[in-house]
Amino acid sequence: MPTLKLSFNQKVAFGFAVILLLLTISGAMSLWTLSDISSSNERVHETAVPVVSEVNKVQIRLLKLANLSALGFNALSEEDIRPYRDDFEKGATEFAEGFKTLETLAQADPQRAALVADIKSNYETYTVAVRKMFDAKLAVLIAKQQVEDEVGVVMERSDDVGFAFLEIVNFRAPSRALEKDLSLAQGFANQADALMAGVAKAAQEIQNGEDLERLDSAQDDFEFIINGAMFWFDKAIPLFQPMDDADIIGTAQSSVEALRARLKAQPNLVDYKREQLTQAQTAREQLSASKVAVEKSVAGLDEVLVSADAQFNRLQAELGDSVSFGFKSTIVILIILLGLATQNFNSMRLAIRKKMIDLAKLNGIGGTLAAARDQDTALELVLHAMYEKIGIERGSVYLFNKDNELEAKAFLPPKQMDGAPSAITFTMGEGVIGRAAASKQALFVPDTSRDPSYVGGEGEKAKALLCVPLVDKDILIGVMNFSGEVNKVAFADSDYEFVASVARSLVTTIKNIRMVEVIEEHNRTLERKVEERTAALKQKNEDIANMFSNMHQGLFTIVDGGLIHPEYAAYLETIFETKEIANRNFVDFMFRRSTLSADVIDAASTAVASIVGEDAMMYEFNSHLLVTELTLEFSDKPNKLIELDWDPIIDDQDVITKLMVTVRDVTALKELQAEAEGQKQELMMIGEILSVDADKFSDFIEGSTSFVDKCRTIIEETEQKDLGKLAELFRNIHTVKGNARTYGLKHITDTVHRIENTYDQLRKNEDMQWQPQELLSELAFAEQAIKVYSSIFKDKLGRDGKQGIAGARVDREQISRLLESIAALSDTELPANVISIVRDTYHSLAAIDAEPLESVIADVLKSVQSLAEELGKPAPLVVIEDHDIYTRKAAHGMLNNIFMHVLRNAVDHGIEAPAERRAKGKAERGSIRIDAVEDDGAVSFVVRDDGRGIALGKIFAKAVGMGLYPADAARPAASEIANLIFTSGFSTADEVTEVSGRGVGMDAVREFLESEGGSIEIKLDAGDEGADYRGFTTLIHLPASLCVIPPEFARAS
């Protein structure tokens, strides 16, 4: 049987074929194994992993919701609860969206789907409970406030009863015969008062209690307490009745009935408290229900996690089996491959040896090329190396020229260059060389005569041709061309690799040579550029250094750790009086001498630590804690006022690397601002003073100083709170304010208004203590304000208000005698031509020490116009008929005080708003009329306005509220009610303003007049005694000593 013999190359080829077959089988098995592993991995990531991930997300959202509901339950105010409820609703919406994803993932597993459905049911139970809890919590707060308000009202009613009882306890017997009965009555009343105090105590117990059952008997408790107290009070009634001229018993009984009615009202204190406790119990129950539901939901989610974890472990086991099988099959194939590799070892050893020889030659060529200094030398070295290695006869290298054509740059042998054309070129795709260039692949032509694309010369012999492209990262730079006789030149596979390696080395060398040329050109200009940029950088650094050294504000940066960067503006040392700044902790540096509190400093330190090195948004969150102004204290120098600006320095990653602080010493600036503000206020005061007549201003200063002195004396001599003294304080200070407002003296008006507030609080707040030192300190502000105006008036403006007439001193007593003498004349005794002279003389003399009313109250009339504007009413028309009657200067201050109150009351309380006047058919603009009437040698000023009249119904209701009349008292005569406005502390204004409402004014008017021998009264027009409003006239009586009444012949016709 013939034997098949294989050559060495055939055996190697066969061996490699077998190896290739085994590798193919191994690859196929590996692909199958990888496919199985990938499928297992996909099952893991498509089933178990998403479920675990989504369950974790759902659990986190659910726990966040549980935390919000717990915080909402513990919140103490509606402002705290509502944000928690809103956040809960927002979180519930997000939870529902995430839970839909979990439901979708669970559908593939019926058991898991059932678990998820149960979780959903528990969650819905939880959300319903939480919403009910939030509603109950809000209801608790409302009921709690209602309880607190109702307790306050009950205690007020209880106090009213107690005050009535104490009126009896503190009552003095009108005679010794009644002392015994009064003593017994006071004992009974005292016992009743002690028992009645139980109402307030019971109300407070209800307010503070938490027992619902206790509320069932609360109403009976109240009734028991009141009945017990009234048992003793009823015993006091027959004893005290004979001496009860002020109807104290009736007041007490009315107060008791008012208390009973309040306690039995619907709803009442017990109802509000029951609602509070019921809602609180509901909130707790719903919170407990929500906790149970959320715990069930969390337990269900844990079960889903256990199920997903089991599935995950099962799929992981399948994945491990696939990996194990693939590993074993790979080992078997590797063993077979190792056997075949051994058989081909010798062939491979020979191939490796040839490779090593080629590598040695390549290294040599590489070293030679590396030493080449120009392109031509490198090309010749490559051609020579190829000649030695392959034995080619001829060779050439083509490189692209500026026209993008392949141009011959080197030949082998060199002698072939002699007589050659000056430039042999090819275009892309032309000839074998052009084809190799276009395809960027090596081309071997065994016989050029058989290749139609070959471009040769006439008569040229056939040859074997190898063209190798020179490529750098897919960029063609040229082609190498080698040729020899057809039968002598053959290229093995290793020769192709050798030529390709030489081509790569040549490409690298050409690139390096060209780069060296570029670098050398670069170096020729680099030194000049470096010098230019160095000079520019030096100038820039000098500019920055000069700026830091000469800027008149501090500038530094805080780096991580709270330390100050070494680079800072030199002026910082001047501001803080120290050179120890660099690398110092900013808190110690900035705040050691400051007057800031420890809390403010700690907050700033914490804020900086939270900003530097963190995300840029941290600056927005914490910048409000950074100090913007501070005061530095020095032991031997004045304090400094410093302003600070903080700016974050942010890098490309949006992280704050430093915090820049700008420091400005604004001490001098603030002083200038304060000085300018003082000058501005002084100029404003000068303008106010100049707008007032000098004599009137002088009278105002004198009168106001007198009122303030009276207030000081009252405060100094009063040891305990006295409502009578308080009323006098009110009258004095209210008059100062009214006059200051009349003359437009704003600083005095504002200062006195604050003092008036204090007196008002003292009067209304029984618990407010009488503190003379504080009151005197406050009064000093008013005194100082008056002194400032007085100083400007006298020192700045050089006026004293007592200029006289043309600088002459006038004897007022002599003037009075002359006026009396003229008044005694009769027009029948005087010739007609003398009467006019006497009349003029009379008026001239009268004008020296007296003025008509319209001139006296001119400033008050102006203030009435401005008051009307403030109240949104048209300025009223004021008509004055003085009938040539004069008032002496001694009365001018008093008249200004009187008419300031009377006319302001007319505008504020009497004259209606425009809409109301239109509805009544009146002109929108109101009117006030003042008539001066002679009254038995004295003068009466009759004042009327066309307003709605005096509010009798409102005045009587106010009087009852003040305790001036019992609640069940019959309405007294209308005239009596009308004149109540002269009672101290009485006002019908609904609220306190700078215009009215404090109950001081008309009582002050009466006080002024009576102190000078005058009087004031309200005279009602004819009308219904029971009407709520009545027209009226104000009659102001001025004594004769303060008036100048001309005789008939001296009056105007």
From TrEMBL:
Keyword set, alphabetical order: Cell membrane, Kinase, Membrane, Phosphoprotein, Transducer, Transferase, Transmembrane, Transmembrane helix, Two-component regulatory system
Top-rank taxon, per record: Bacteria
Main location: membrane
Residue span(s) of domain HPt: 689-796
Top EC class for this record: transferase
Key word Plastid present: no
Protein's recorded name: Chemotaxis protein CheA
PTM sites of type Phosphohistidine: H734
PANTHER family listed in its UniProt record: CHEMOTAXIS PROTEIN CHEA, SENSOR HISTIDINE KINASE CHEA
Source species of the chain: Aquipseudomonas guryensis
Ranges where the Histidine kinase domain occurs: 774-1042
Cited InterPro entries: Bact_Chemotaxis_CheA, GAF, GAF-like_dom_sf, HATPase_C_sf, HATPase_dom, His_kinase_dom, HPT_dom_sf, Sig_transdc_His_kin_Hpt_dom
Task of the protein: Involved in the transmission of sensory signals from the chemoreceptors to the flagellar motors. CheA is autophosphorylated; it can transfer its phosphate group to either CheB or CheY.
GO cellular component: plasma membrane
Classification via SUPFAM superfamilies: ATPase domain of HSP90 chaperone/DNA topoisomerase II/histidine kinase, GAF domain-like, Histidine-containing phosphotransfer domain, HPT domain
Reaction it catalyzes: ATP + protein L-histidine = ADP + protein N-phospho-L-histidine
GO BP, one annotated term: chemotaxis
Compartments, record wording: Cell membrane
Name of a matching Pfam family: GAF_2
Documented EC number(s): 2.7.13.3
GO molecular function: protein histidine kinase activity
